[in-house]
Amino acid sequence: MEDFNTFMTNPTPARPLLGLTVLAVEDSRFASEALRLICLKSGARIRRADCVASARRHLRVYRPSIAIIDLGLPDGSGLDLIRDLNRATPRVDVLLAISGDPHLAHAARSAGADRFVDKPLTSVAEFQNIILSHLPRERVPNGPRAVPKQDIKPDPIAYIDDLAHASDMLGDGMDRKSVAYVAQFLSGVARSADDNGLARASDLVLKTLSDGKSDRSCVSQLAGLMQDRMDDRKVV
């Protein structure tokens, strides 16, 4: 197995994660772009997998230093992948769960995650602090560290790409499980983009499904809000 940790580079105060590799298992392009920019500013290298199956293909080829796993993925739960990575030998140095649903924090830690991270993650300083606090002591750079103050703002085109992807999936023939996945996906993406209106509409669909109802009107409302945002982007 190829181990990218063999290509270690000495970290610097400005880029304390130089030499570390990240596998981000994330189905949202917008959230992935935020992670990519944060890793770039921190010195870490990153690869993305957009589902459990893709992540497992990556892991057959190389072992990352850090795995950041979204809990809601199109082909299964990120919790299963966290359990497997937690039991693997050698184990990744840092194993993080990330989600827009804080109620999943306990399940993530029980599965073996070192930490649960709330979406959205946009602070470079917060990301660095999380990683450095969980790295083995010998991997943490010595001396003072410059603490970056900026928040990351991904390209809004990535947000529109996510909406287009969700809109394509949200068809009339979808079963309840598929509708729940799309609504959960949109809820996390909307919060990452500070789109409170779309986040509320997504949460309404999730609540309707949780209550055992099948109200197509709230799904239609959600689809309409997505289309409005995509149309606005075309006008711009």
UniProtKB/TrEMBL annotation:
One of its GO terms (biological process) is phosphorelay signal transduction system. Residues 21-134 form the Response regulatory domain. Signal peptide: none annotated. The modification 4-aspartylphosphate is found at D70. Keywords: Phosphoprotein. PROSITE patterns: RESPONSE_REGULATORY (PS50110). It comes from the Bacteria. SUPFAM superfamilies: CheY-like. This is KDP operon transcriptional regulatory protein KdpE. The lineage of its organism: Bacteria, Pseudomonadati, Pseudomonadota, Alphaproteobacteria, Rhodobacterales.
